[in-house]
Specification:
By secondary structure, the chain is mainly beta. Helix content is 12%, strand content 39%. It has one domain: Nucleoside Triphosphate Pyrophosphohydrolase.
């Protein structure tokens, strides 16, 4: 039996038709994540999201969020070294009209931030790999279960 599932909240942060992603490095390899993180016991999903956005992006004013807009299971294949199951609950927020000059992170795992146009996502190592969903998702779309995904 593997480890218990972990719940991770994250946000599609839109700014002038682009998406803000956080750069991480693991084992000398770069990958990108939607800003967010783990939910603590007794913490609501939205409270966890606002806490994580403050930690990873420096958004202290708790922007209004939409959603959840998608749910994704990241389940490590049985043959992998680490048994891992993460349930990603994805929200969305529009940051247009804000200055992103102050975007910074208090999270040591975040190595930087970048705005991406949706057309640029095909060449990006994104965890979980939800590029196609991000390329077609529009505000107001119904919630989507993206099924069990994992990164190779």
């Amino acid at each position: 039996m593997g480890a218990e599932p972990r719940i991770r909240v994250s946000a599609i942060l839109r700014w002038q038709n682009r998406l803000l992603l956080c750069r991480h490095e693991k084992g000398g390899r770069e990958h990108w994540l939607l800003p967010g993180g783990g939910v603590h016991s007794g913490e609501s999903l939205v409270a966890a999201l606002h806490r994580e956005l403050a930690e990873e992006v420096g958004l202290a004013d708790e922007p209004p969020v939409e959603g959840p807009v998608a749910i994704v299971d990241s389940i490590a294949p049985e043959r992998s070294f680490a048994q891992k199951h993460v349930v990603h609950i994805i929200f969305a927020a529009d940051l247009t009209g804000r200055s992103l000059e102050a975007v910074s992170s208090q999270d040591a795992a975040v190595r930087g931030h970048r705005l991406f146009g949706v057309a640029e996502l095909d060449g990006v190592v994104l965890h979980p790999p939800i590029q196609r969903f991000l390329q077609r998702w529009r505000p107001g779309d119904p919630i989507v279960y993206l099924g069990p995904l994992w990164a190779p």
